[in-house]
Specification:
Helices cover about 30% and strands about 35% of the residues. It is of the alpha+beta class and about 160 residues long.
Length: about 160
């Protein structure tokens, strides 16, 4: 499919926002540098979150496969970022989410937020991740010694989203 060859990039409320859904790994330092360059004189905070494929408590995880609905997923991410802009004073937001088969300890998701003030950056980064976990149309399958199983939305993720 087309998304496997060329990552789709959408601009949200600000031209400094970036949304990508891609198979390729991402470079944390590249995104951090881009976020810092948005307003070098006025930026007071850059908050970055990177999610990783982790081992499971009940079974040895061999890999995880993530699927998405191209177009719909990016639109949902764009909506989440736009909502973050409406709640906090942000300079820019980067969201990069990987799809395809990922091995244990590989990077899955990058969320970076820059703002003049740290509280806005921290809150917006956490908000984006909470809503991404519960609302974005990604489907995850875990591959373990026992076979393949689809991951369900956790009650703790739904509860985290309710506080916003």
């Amino acid at each position: 499919t087309a998304y496997r060859q060329i990552p789709r990039i959408f601009n949200c409320m600000k031209t400094n926002d970036l949304i990508r859904v891609q198979e390729a790994d991402f470079d944390i330092s590249e995104h951090y540098h881009q976020l810092r360059q948005i307003n070098p004189a006025g930026t007071g905070a850059v908050v970055v979150f990177v999610g990783l494929v982790r081992d499971l408590d009940d079974a040895k995880l061999e890999a995880m496969e993530l699927e998405h609905y191209p177009g719909m997923t990016e639109s949902c991410l764009e909506h989440i970022v736009s909502e973050a802009h409406s709640r906090w004073s942000l300079e820019g937001v980067h969201v990069v989410h990987r799809v395809g088969k990922l091995l244990r300890h590989e990077q899955i998701v990058f969320v970076g937020v820059t703002s003049r003030h740290r509280a806005d950056a921290f809150n917006a980064c956490e908000f984006v991740m909470d809503y991404l976990k519960q609302d974005a149309p990604f489907w995850k399958a875990e591959f373990t010694e026992q076979g393949k199983r689809w991951v369900q939305v956790k009650a703790s993720d739904q509860q985290a989203g309710k506080r916003w």
